Amino acid sequence: MKTALWLYLFLFLAFFDLHAQYPVLTPFAISLGAGPAFIGWMMGMYSLTHLPGNLLAGVLVDRNGSRRYIVFSLVTAGVLLLLQAHAQFPWHLLLLRAASGFALAFLSPACMTLLASLSSDSATQGKYMSGHGIVHTLASVISPAAGAFIVAKAGFSGTFSSLGWLLILTGFMAFFSVPKHVQTRAANPLVHTEGDLEAAQLTGASLSSDSTNSAKPSRRYYLLPFFVSCSQGVLFFELPLSQNGGRDILSTGLLLSLLSLGALVTLSMFFLHRLTPSGRIAAALLGMAICFFGLAAFGNIPPGLLLFLMGAAKGVLFPAMASLFISLGGPGRLGRTFSMQSIAMSLGAFAGPVAAGQLRGIVSPYFIAFLLLMTALLLLPPKSTKLEPSYKAGLNGRVA
Known about the structure:
This protein has 400 residues and is mainly α. The protein is built from 16 helices and no strands. This is MFS transporter. Pfam families: MFS_1 (PF07690). It is found in: Cell membrane.
């Protein structure tokens, strides 16, 4: 638990630093002379360069542990932010954001693997993932408005410099506080949890003792984080531009804080983890899609309300996805599993803003996000109606 608390502290500081940039990047790019299409490529390039980092992280984290990669990501990203404070041309910002994307690609798989490794019990792992989501959301509630406030007081250069030093300091704290390796107890191969059943239902995989640890997630299922991340990329691209052409930084920061506040509300509802992951995922996708449709079609609905409801849906969605990927990964494959999930999300985060930047003059980007989420809902792998005999035996033994 001590390791989890330290990790939550570092994650809070890191997420605060990263989310504080969201309302700042678009106005900063505009001040350098960038147009909407270039801004879309800039945001997408950050996610595209996640891919090689995600591919490396999946193998390296399982082999060497998480600490060194957490420290590397934080310190390197901080140095790049210090350089970003002195960018003078749009292509400077593009290159620095691309480098930051590679550096930070190691952070999420390393943190998620370390948290999941703290326990072999799926219920406890779910609580750790909920804690991760709460910390993430707390940081993202405060940071957008804080970033807008810092820009108003210190300007773009001062903002990026202060955020860069914060990341570097957090990296050094992680070096001395995060353990090199965390050993977990092997789970009973004959006892399966509700998450295991749900994973088997979604992928059609057997829950026999020989196949539990070697089963791989259905490739079709990785479409879920891809479409979700794509829609989020559209939101982070379009929301600043819709606020007075990207010049109203404070309004953007407050709206993003409302988005995170809605997520915090549902993340705090721990009883939701008693529901099956697929049910939570389906309900959350539908709720987010409706909110995007409201942003695209109904200008008389306050955007703050829709973003709050969208955040509430996100608070349901992401812990459910994490629980499923934990059960699908199995011992010894958590790094690879979270790496593949991060790759899918990186591809989506690249495609979303790029498509929105190119099609913004033709159709509302919010409507594109609505179509993406509805597609994800339709492609969600169906439940299997038959239970494996090994699961029934394990469940009976668990009840007994």
